[in-house]
Structures are given as structure tokens and as C-alpha cells.
Design a protein that fits this description.
Number of domains: 5
CATH topology of the largest domain: Beta Polymerase, domain 2
Structural class: mainly alpha
CATH architecture of the largest domain: 2-Layer Sandwich
Largest sheet: 5 strands, mixed
Helix content: 55-70%
Number of helices: 43
Shape: elongated
CATH class of the largest domain: Alpha Beta
Length: 948
């Protein structure tokens, strides 16, 4: 341990100023007697270490600390007893605290030396206990390499006070783990053990109170956070105060090389070359201090005006302003940073020296306050009697002299730091002065506010005014802090103008109001909206464009957080990784209902991300259809093990056979929209006489049918998080009259002997997606499907059946409007009839199975079932109608909606109004209708009767 003693001056101000720590003429014994009589804590230490006091007075302080360190490390290296380690850590701390107290009262060492001793003791203890925990963990020798521990705050800068918390961030390294899930869980357990061993009160007292709240998003992240997650947070979401915190950071334990690399990687986050308005506003808030009363009773020497934080934040703000361009300013220790500021011309030399002296004096007083009861306090006594006692503890006979010295010290700091506001500049001026004044609570004519909002484009501003006034009065959780309301004053006028640029500003504002009212306390989202107009615009666009997404945001405001991560905009998804994430989360669920809620949260966040990508043009409609379908695949696959557990608990384990989930329709073709239901068929394989092993055994067929129904329930049951999907089973053999699950032999027999043509056409979109103990079952099912599709058919019979099927559907579901894409002539259903009918023709037997019309059309042209021009026009229609269908679902526009065309659709497709939409849909439908009627004939279509 480095215990070199730097010189320091603890008498601030000019020579005529009152001295906070006056020289005392009394002898050492008298001084120590005052120390012991005032502080029960120091009296206890003096009794415990009475043999050390003479050695301290003889100049052996550093040797005593070195001996205490060696004793602690010896216990660490030899003992496997946690209680013994904890006792040794506390004995180490108490020894150093006693040395600090005696050398302080007898003026044998200065404050710089004390800060160094205290900091190094905490570092040695933390590193020693962390390494010991690694050795005891299930990870063994490799454990220390898979994490690192950062110290921030005063421990990070080597300025730890007498009875301080220690601010730590524990970061794990997944790329160095053998089993990421198991190892991550072990590091979380190790971190909790570290906190307990350092912080838990014992018969030997307390060690160091550990504070882990400086890690990214502490309310939502584990106590040991992954390095990639931490880095992503700091790159995209961290706030100004977190930048300031990392000015004083260092690696104190674990994998130091990885820790140093991490700190290097976040340097651009800490040291930015440019400032934005939000940072400047945060700096102004950082510089605000609590006011000081004349009698100083209860004065907070840390947060009070002219106190410790006034100096520290004065330094940090200068560093945040200039450190991005001037590396010489990137220093953690406060005194060193003040010296660098003077050397680089940011403050004067005399100013720097005065602030250094004042800072050290404050820190010495901080120690005296904390020595009273070994508590992290920064407040002067609230009662006069205790204030007099505190004055005597600092060497004053007259309490008023003590007060004058503190006031002089505080005034000097105020004077030397007051010019910083001018460097930052005046507070942001908002052009909407009337709105800002109204939001700040000033008396403004309400008619004027109504008129202003009306001129912006709001139809019902009278409804907005009481809402906003309620927010500014702190009537909702998110605006209860002064900080939040301060942001709202600046944010709301900006948002009003952004709302007004959209189609439905009143409706969008209403969505926003509901979102705000559901947010928890805190200002994170408000800060992000203020600092990022792009984020605000994105949320407003969702409110204006996509009612379903808007409802998701309002009902689940936590989804907004995902917008703030750069990973949200990544369009390349590792589906195996997503499956693993979801599976791990489900495994950590408390019970079955909790797991169903987890399933729905993952699905919702992924679908929200996909819909947002589509809305912003980040992906195409075809890509969105594929992603929506993969989400469904992943969700269904992930819940199957839980469904199996539920079945085993109720009916026992089924050891025979397995089951496959066959996706049909849009899911099978990977063309789902954000509102699609899912068409499923459950196909199992087992012996007829097989039985489950439980107390209530079921036969194999019944067990698999119950399994299928349990899976359907898991997807469709309404929970606190809503539903996953509506499940449609009508495409299974015999439709709704058939069993929930069918044996593969029955499935094969039905397709060979009983299925209608339309059922075989539906098989073109069939796709096995997941299952339980499937073995070769998916291959068997695909062979059955291929056999059914290869069946010999006469073209006339195919056409006749298609006409009958089309006739039945048109009778049951007439088109609701010319822009009813699904049911209108030449719409999506007609496109499906045409393409699937041609795929059933004898001339298409050698073609590969194609689920999507866009994939089938080129093949049909290649074998002569479509001519080149038909294929070209049909491909365009298929692409454009599918794209438009996604946007209609996204915006919530119904087929029978004859109102104004949503602006999002206008912008996406270059349309002016509803008439333009109808004309464009007619243009897209025309080649589909022509190609279909060319083959089935309009007369034959009308004359054909329904089959069956």
C-alpha cells in the first residue's frame, strides 16, 4: 500500500479569516481525551487498539497500516471460513480508522494522506474478498478472469472519506465464459456475497457499505451486468451525471486488462468533443446547491451552497466542457484536476489554490463529523448543544468562532465558483415564452393559450389545458420531481409543434397523455424526448400512424425503453439467440402464469420492433412478414417445454412418440402481418396402446390431444399481459369437427382419401415449425403433403372446384369496399386462388412447392402456365398488395373505412386521398382478375354451384 504523505494546507482564505481547525496548546493526552469523550466510536477504537496509540505517536503510522494489511491478506490466503474473513476485513478497517483519527487530532498526517490510507484500505479489502470469493465459487481458478470491478466516486479517485459508502460496478465478461447462462448466474451470486461480506454488520462492526446503484439502469439490471450490455447503455442512454461519475473511475479487482479496455472503450461517452443543450441544462442543475441558514444548524457540508459538491461539480463541469478536447484535464482527484485547470488556463492560479485548500478543509471537517458515530453523515448538528460539542471536537472553545470559520470557508468557495454559470451561458431561451410561462405556473390568460394551441392545429385545446396543468402540479408520478417539471416546461412546447405537424394531433396528444400517466416516477424518458427530437418524432408518428402500436405503448410504457437502444434498429436477428433468451427468461419465471406473461412481453417487444422497422422503411413488407412469422415460430417453440411440464405434472410423462406443430396459412407461408392469427394443425405419432406414466394416466392419443389444447391455451389465454395469438384450427382434417390433434397415419389417410381440393391447396403453405420429441415426424409429414400435391387431377375438375370455393367465400364474405384487398375481385384471395389453382395443374407437378405467390409466379411462367406479361403484372400486384395490406393493418384502416386516408399511407405510397387509393387498388387488381377469369371464365364462375 502506498502511504506516502503529501503536504497539505487546511487553512483556507486569507490570513485574517477564522481558522476552522485552530492550533491547540494542550498536550497529546488532553487532545485524545477530548476525542474519546466526544466520540463513543473513537473511544471504542482507542480501547481496542490502546497498544497502537503510542506507536502512532512515535511516527509508526505507516508501519502499523502495512502490518494490518499483511495480517488481513494472510487470513485471506489461508482461511476458508467466511466469518473469519469478514472479521479480518473489519479489523483491518478499524485499525486504519484508528490511525487516521489519532494522526488527525495530533496533526501527525494531513488530509491527503488520510484519503489515501482510507482509499487503499478499501481497495485492498475489496480485491482480497473478491479474489477469495472467486476461489470458493463453482468457477474455480478461472472465476477472477470472467469479471472486473470498477470503483467510482471517491474510491475511484482515491479520496475516500472516513465512513464512506463505496460505489462499485461489477461487470462480467460473457466472451470468456464456458457456459454463459450458468456462469452469469454464478457471478451474480458472487457479487451478492461480496456485498454481504463487506457490508453486513457483525460483532466486529461494519466493513464498507457497498452501493451498486451507479451501474446502468439499476432498477432493471442484475447486480453483475454484462460488459456488452453496459457498453450499449453508455453509448446510447447514459446521462450527464453518469459521465461525471466516470471521471473518477478505476479498476480495483478482477480481470484488470479487460477492465482497462472497457474504460478505454467508453472514453468517447465520458469525454465528448461537443456539448448539446441537454448537457448544458444538466450542468446547471448539477451546480445548484442547497441554501445555507445563518446559524448553520443542519447545514449539509456536502450538498450545501459553497460546500464539498460545489467544488467537485465546479471541477466536473469544467472537465465535461473541455475534457473532450484537452486530455490533460482528465484527472480523477479533485486537487489534481484543479491544478490542471489552472495550468491550462481555465481558472486562475490563485483561484485554484484557494479551492484546493477549501476542498481539503471541507474534507477534514467531513471526517470529524463521521468520526462521531462511524456514520456517513454530512450534516452539522441540528441542535445548539450538539453544535457546541462539534465545535469543541474541532478545537474551538467558542461555537460562534466555529460558525464564522465555516461561513468564511463557504463564502470563499461561492466566490471562486460563481463565474462558471457565465461560461455555460444563460438558460435555454424558448421562443414559446407564453407557453413556457403558463407551464411554469405564471398567470397567463387561458384564452391566449387556447388560441395558441388552436393556431398550431389542435381542434380541442380546451381539453389539453387542464391535463397539462395537472402534470405541472405533480399530479402524476412522472412529474412529481422538480427536475421532471423543469424538463416538461421546455419539452411540451416542442412536442405541441411536433404533434401539430401530424394528421391527428388531438388523438396523438391523447395517446401521449395516457402514456405519461402510466409512467413510473423518474425523468429518464422525458430527458430522452427533450434531447432527441428524432425519438419524440418516432413516438408521435406511432401515435398518429399505428393505433395498435400506440395502444401497446400506452398499455406497456416500458416498451419505449427499447427505442433508446441502438440494438433496436438492428434488422439482422439471430433467431437461435432469441430463442435462447426467451427460454432462459421462461426458466427464470416464478410460476406458470408468470411464464405466460414473460412469453407475451417478449412477443410484444419483438413485434413492436418489427412494426416500427416497417413503419420507418427500415425493412420491406415481405421482410416484415418473414420476421412476424419467425417471432411466432420462436414463441411457440419456447413455450412447448413448459406445456410439456404442465402435462407431466397433471397426467404423467409420455415416453412414446412425439408431436409436430404444422403451420398453415400466413404463418406457414411466412407472410404474417402484425394482426394475423395463426393457423395450426397438430400431428402426433404413437402406439394406440401407449400410456403416460402419472397417477392419472392417459392414452397416447388423448395425451397428445390434451397437449395440443394446452398449447393453444398457452397462446390464447388472456393474462395480465394480454394474449399471444388467436389460433385457428379450421384447416385441420375435418375442420372444426375433427380432433384437436391427429395421428400422422390418420393425416395421411385423410389427405389421400377424403380431403377436398381446397384442403390440398392449403397444404401449399404448410410448414412444420416445431414440436416435442419429433424425431423423423416432420419429414414424414412433408412426404404426405408432397404425395397429396402430386395427385393426378383433371384441369376441368380443378377449375370447377376453384369456382365453387370462390362462390362460397364470396357469398359469405362480400367485399366491403373497392379497397377491401382481401375479398374484392382481383384481390388477395383471388390471387391465391389463381396461383394455387395453377400449382395444382398437371403441368406444375415438377415445380418446387412454393408457399408465397411471389415465389410461385416465376416458376409458373417458366413452365408455361402463365405468359411472361401476366407473370410480370401479377408479380407487381402481389408485391404491392402485400405491402399495402401490411400498412392497412399497421394504420388500423378497415376495409369499410371511407374516411380520410391516413397520412402514413399517403406518404408510403405517394397517394393523395381515398380516391387515389381506390384507383391504385383497381389498377393492381385488374391483372389478377383478368388472369383468373381467363382460366375460369366469368360465366362459369356465376353458373357453378357449390360443391358439398
Amino acid at each position: 500500500m502506498n502511504t506516502a504523505r503529501p503536504t497539505d494546507n487546511t487553512n483556507p482564505g486569507d490570513k485574517t479569516s477564522p481558522v476552522l481547525f485552530p492550533s491547540v496548546d494542550a498536550g497529546a493526552d488532553a487532545v485524545l481525551a477530548v476525542m474519546r469523550s466526544t466520540s463513543p466510536h473513537l473511544d471504542r477504537l482507542s480501547s481496542l487498539f490502546k497498544t497502537l496509540t503510542p506507536r502512532i505517536m512515535a511516527g509508526e503510522a505507516e508501519r502499523i497500516i502495512s502490518e494490518a494489511e499483511a495480517q488481513f491478506l494472510a487470513v485471506i490466503s489461508k482461511s476458508r471460513d467466511e466469518a473469519r474473513i469478514m472479521s479480518a476485513a473489519r479489523h483491518f478497517r478499524m485499525t486504519v480508522n484508528h490511525v487516521v483519527a489519532v494522526t488527525d487530532f495530533l496533526n501527525l498526517a494531513g488530509i491527503d494522506t488520510h484519503l489515501n490510507w482510507l482509499s487503499q484500505t478499501a481497495v485492498v479489502a475489496t480485491e482480497g474478498v473478491a479474489r477469495w470469493i472467486c476461489q470458493q465459487s463453482s468457477l474455480g481458478d478461472k472465476a477472477n478472469d470472467g469479471w472486473f470491478i470498477l470503483a467510482l466516486g471517491k474510491l475511484g479517485s482515491g479520496e475516500l472519506n472516513y465512513s464512506s459508502d463505496i460505489d462499485l460496478i461489477v461487470i462480467t465478461l460473457p466472451h470468456l465464459m464456458d457456459d454463459e447462462d450458468q456462469d452469469s448466474a454464478e457471478y451474480i451470486r458472487m457479487t451478492r456475497r461480496l456485498v454481504s461480506m463487506l457490508s453486513k454488520p457483525t460483532a466486529d462492526g461494519i466493513g464498507w457499505r457497498v452501493d451498486l446503484r451507479l451501474r446502468p439502469d439499476p432498477g432493471a439490471t442484475p447486480v453483475a451486468i454484462r460488459s456488452d450490455a453496459a457498453l450499449s447503455y453508455y453509448e446510447s442512454m447514459a446521462r450527464t451525471w453518469e459521465r461525471a461519475a466516470f471521471i473518477r473511475s478505476r479498476v480495483i479487482a478482477g480481470n484488470r486488462d479487460e477492465g482497462e479496455a472497457f474504460l478505454k472503450s467508453i472514453q468517447p461517452f465520458v469525454w465528448r468533443r461537443y456539448l448539446d443543450f441537454n448537457v448544458l441544462e444538466d450542468m446547471r442543475i448539477m451546480l445548484r446547491r442547497e441554501q445555507r441558514s445563518d446559524n448553520l444548524l443542519g447545514y449539509h457540508i456536502k450538498n450545501g451552497l459553497g460546500g464539498i459538491r460545489s467544488v467537485e461539480f465546479f471541477v466536473h463541469v469544467h472537465q465535461l466542457i473541455a475534457g473532450g478536447r484537452e486530455p490533460a484535464l482528465r484527472l480523477g482527484p479533485t486537487a489534481n484536476a484543479l491544478t490542471a485547470l489552472a495550468e491550462n488556463g481555465w481558472i486562475g492560479q490563485a483561484e485554484s489554490k484557494r479551492l484546493i485548500t477549501a476542498y481539503k478543509t471541507w474534507r477534514r471537517l467531513e471526517h470529524r463529523l463521521q468520526m462521531i458515530g462511524d456514520a456517513q453523515t454530512h450534516q452539522l448538528p441540528r441542535a445548539e448543544e450538539q453544535m457546541q460539542s462539534m465545535a469543541g471536537f474541532c478545537g474551538h472553545d467558542d461555537v460562534d468562532d466555529f460558525r464564522r470559520a465555516i461561513i468564511a470557508l463557504s463564502d470563499q468557495v461561492i466566490k471562486d465558483t460563481s463565474g462558471l454559470m457565465e461560461k455555460i451561458g444563460p438558460s435555454h431561451h424558448n421562443d414559446d415564452e407564453a407557453l413556457c410561462s403558463w407551464l411554469q405556473g405564471h398567470e397567463i390568460d387561458p384564452d391566449a393559450i387556447t388560441a395558441t394551441l388552436g393556431e398550431m392545429g389542435f381542434q380541442e385545446p380546451g381539453n389539453m389545458i387542464p391535463l397539462c396543468e395537472g402534470w405541472m402540479a405533480g399530479r402524476i408520478a412522472v412529474t412529481r420531481s422538480d427536475r421532471a417539471r423543469s424538463i416538461m416546461v421546455r419539452l411540451l412546447p416542442q412536442l405541441f409543434r411536433q404533434f401539430a405537424r401530424h394528421d391527428n394531433p388531438d388523438a396523438s396528444f391523447s395517446h401521449f397523455a395516457r402514456l405519461l400517466e402510466r409512467l413510473p416516477a423518474g425523468v429518464h424518458l422525458l430527458t430522452m424526448l427533450e434531447s432527441s427530437t428524432a425519438l419524440a418524432e418516432m413516438i408521435i408518428t406511432v401515435f398518429d400512424t399505428a393505433p395498435r402500436l400506440a395502444d401497446e405503448l400506452v398499455r406497456h410504457p416500458e416498451v419505449v425503453d427499447s427505442l433508446m437502444y441502438t440494438s433496436f434498429w438492428d434488422v439482422h436477428h439471430d433467431w437461435q439467440d432469441r430463442q435462447q433468451q426467451l427460454t432462459t427468461a421462461l426458466d427464470n419465471g416464478i410460476d406458470y402464469e408468470d411464464r405466460l406473461n414473460i412469453l407475451r412481453r417478449f412477443q410484444r417487444e419483438w413485434e413492436f420492433q418489427t412494426a416500427t422497422h416497417l413503419m420507418t422503411g427500415t425493412i420491406t413488407a415481405a421482410e416484415a412478414g418473414s420476421v412476424f412469422s419467425r417471432i411466432a415460430d420462436t414463441v411457440i417453440s419456447a413455450i412447448i417445454p413448459e406445456v410439456n411440464r404442465q402435462m407431466e405434472n397433471r397426467f404423467g410423462r409420455m415416453d412414446d412418440g412425439g408431436i409436430t406443430v404444422l403451420a398453415m396459412g400466413r404463418l406457414g407461408a411466412e407472410e404474417m402481418t402484425m394482426t394475423s392469427d395463426i393457423d395450426l394443425i397438430f400431428i402426433y405419432e404413437c402406439d394406440d396402446d401407449s400410456q403416460s406414466t402419472g397417477k392419472k394416466p392417459l392414452s397416447g392419443p388423448i395425451w397428445y390431444s390434451r397437449f395440443s389444447q394446452q398449447l393453444i391455451n398457452a397462446l390464447t389465454a388472456p393474462t395480465a399481459e394480454g394474449r399471444c395469438y388467436e389460433v385457428d384450427m379450421r384447416l385441420r382434417p375435418s375442420g372444426n369437427a375433427g380432433p384437436v390433434a391427429i395421428h400422422v397415419d390418420g393425416f395421411a389417410r385423410y389427405q389421400a382419401e377424403e380431403a377436398w381440393l381446397w384442403e390440398h391447396m392449403a397444404l401449399l403453405k404448410a410448414r412444420p415449425i416445431t414440436g416435442f420429441r419429433q424425431n423423423t415426424l416432420p419429414e414424414t409429414i412433408n412426404r404426405v403433403i408432397d404425395t397429396a400435391l402430386q395427385k393426378d387431377r383433371k384441369p376441368a375438375d380443378i377449375i370447377k372446384d376453384v369456382i365453387a370455393m370462390r362462390q362460397r367465400v364470396r357469398a359469405a364474405f362480400p367485399a366491403l369496399s373497392p379497397h377491401d384487398l382481401r375479398y374484392r375481385d382481383g384481390g388477395l384471395l383471388d390471387l391465391g386462388y389463381l396461383v394455387q389453382m395453377l400449382q395444382m395443374m398437371p403441368g406444375a407437378k415438377d415445380l418446387p412447392r412454393a408457399a408465397r405467390a411471389a415465389d410461385a409466379i416465376p416458376d409458373l411462367a417458366a413452365c408455361g402456365l402463365l405468359n411472361a406479361e401476366e407473370a410480370r403484372l401479377l408479380a407487381i400486384s402481389a408485391e404491392k398488395m402485400n405491402n399495402l395490406q401490411h400498412w392497412l393493418r399497421l394504420t388500423g384502416m378497415k376495409p369499410d373505412d371511407g374516411s380520410k386516408l391516413p397520412k402514413a399511407i399517403q406518404d408510403a405510397f405517394g397517394l393523395g386521398d381515398l380516391n387515389d387509393l381506390v384507383a391504385w387498388v383497381e389498377q393492381l387488381a385488374a391483372p389478377v382478375k383478368a388472369a383468373l377469369e381467363k382460366r375460369i371464365g366469368p360465366e362459369r364462375q356465376r353458373q357453378a354451384g357449390p360443391k358439398g
